[in-house]
Amino acid sequence: MALPILTVISALGNQGRGVVSAFLGDKAQLKVHIRALTSNLSSESAQELAKNPNVSVVQVDLASTESIESALQGSTYIFANTAFDPATFMAQGAKATEERESAQIQKITRAASKVATLKHLVWSTLPDAKAASDGRYHIPHFQSKVAADKVVLEAGSGLSDKTTFLRIGVYGSNLLRIPHRPVYSPDTNTHLVQYPVGPDVKFAFIGDEVVNTGIYVRAILEQPEKTIGRVIVGVADNLSCTEWAAIFQKVQDKLGSGSKVTFKECSLAEYEEKWGAIGTEVGLMMTYFNEFGEKSFSTSTWGWPIATAGDLGIEHELRSTEETLLGLEWPAQD
């Protein structure tokens, strides 16, 4: 008898890879055949994944309704994750990137609503910060994902009684990337972590964005009675930026750099001046966190209940942000 199909959208991205690995692992009680969707079948990662007999790697064009509908047909389970595309952001700006992702999301959700075999859709999303703040915080890479919420909640979509929204917390590994990467001063051998957020304001971190996303999605699909019609906050730990910087200090200690790491709060205007358009994008997110703190990922749930790692019984499986950062390969100081 054929196994039910779990279709993973963006299967080669961080979150998608985690979901694929979780269902190929020994802890998975729900046995599925994985349909891994990617835009590039010729990539080394796609070709390697295709060697697994429990995985079918399928090409999809997320700009094409026909391509998406074909890729989703016959799915019993779907994990959907889309990207706020960096190339579009650099070339055309935040508004165009938001519109691009929103269009993809609308195509995916409407295609999912037509899948007669679908039992459970897990949508990786972010909170509607604009609604939560009465319009004060329009964060494009958050608002682009709200398109899924609207389609799922539409009368007649048939998705509201099949869907779980998974809100993945901040990647601790962001410290590897601009503009999050701590600024190194060789004259003083110091690293500065700086954001427009108070030093003691805590907000959600996912920990290991690959491993932990897989753990969450595995638990969600294996416990539909606890997860359908709910918002899951994907968090391994709630940390302040001071605590985040302290973890990066442990990284420096492990590397033997002798560097001193500090956190300093700045204004949104200062952050934007330093980093330009990407500074506006990240800075708006941080000012939203500054106001809403640990509630940042649990706002605007349209009356859907919140569920946590504790509710799913997975809190002891998750990799912490500290464990994750200490296990990464860090580039040379510059």
Automatic annotation (TrEMBL):
One of its GO terms (cellular component) is nucleus. Residues 6-295 form the NmrA-like domain. It comes from the Eukaryota. It holds the Pfam family NmrA. Keywords: NADP. Gene3D superfamilies: NAD(P)-binding Rossmann-like Domain, UDP-galactose 4-epimerase, domain 1. Belongs to the NmrA-type oxidoreductase family. This is NmrA-like domain-containing protein. The lineage of its organism: Eukaryota, Fungi, Dikarya, Ascomycota, Pezizomycotina.
